[in-house]
Amino acid sequence: MTDADDTTYLAAFRTRLGLPGIIDVHTHFMPDQVLRKVWAYFDSAGPLTGRAWPITYRADEQVRLKTLRDFGVRAFTALVYPHKPDMAAWLNEWTADFAARTPDCLHTATFFPEPPAASYVREAVERGARVFKAHVQVGGYHPGDPLLDPVWGLLEDARVPIVIHCGSGPAPGTHTGPDPIAGVLRRFPRLRLIVAHMGTPEYSEFLDLAEAYADVRLDTTMVWTDFSEADAPFPVHEHGRLRAFADRILFGSDFPNIPHSYGHSIEALERLDLGDDWLRQVCYRNAAALFGLE
Prior knowledge:
This protein is of the alpha/beta class and about 290 residues long. Helices cover about 45% and strands about 10% of the residues.
């Protein structure tokens, strides 16, 4: 689809479902120099991507913001993630400023297992951070690292959601998969985790975690798109659990770093044929309730 086609399709989708907009919990806005390094990594088909990955929405920040708004996205995130120590606090300063000048962006923050993590996470919460991002694959850390214990405890008590990439897709990391994060949940069972990409490719195991922990949610980022289905198809036998967890699945896109059109992310959900009310919950209502946007 072209951007114009997407805009028309998404407007019709929202009208048909009676939605005031779409809430996208998995979008990336970050300092320009960092984003360009991310794009360069995707362009090189680095080992963590596992395959060629063209960036569809490679544009300046204001163009990307306008694109999302034209698509009817009412609220979104600025997911940032450090790959080394002494980076997270600086990223949090940037995201706080970005949220202040971008009212439709949920104030986003991040962390890394390092001695000052508890301090800057507490500061981010006090400044109004509404969602955090953790990236176990890129960060290369174990989510059960003792340096993160005070962070998990603080976020559990503050009830702030964390979008966490902890599945082993698109390429496994040293500490990805369900077991490391399951250990964290055993000690911090009220964490509001949003498992990115439905836990690709360990879909069933992460649905098991959602079944065991009432505050675990999952986001749809890139799942069921043609790109993902070619490498990590979602098991058809789990469609029943998609219905069962209709109130705990949130729409995500990975914009702008997606190898397909934005509309295809929604089209992929429609193809599941799980009903209009399921789509209403996933694309708007669940996130609106979680983040108090209604």
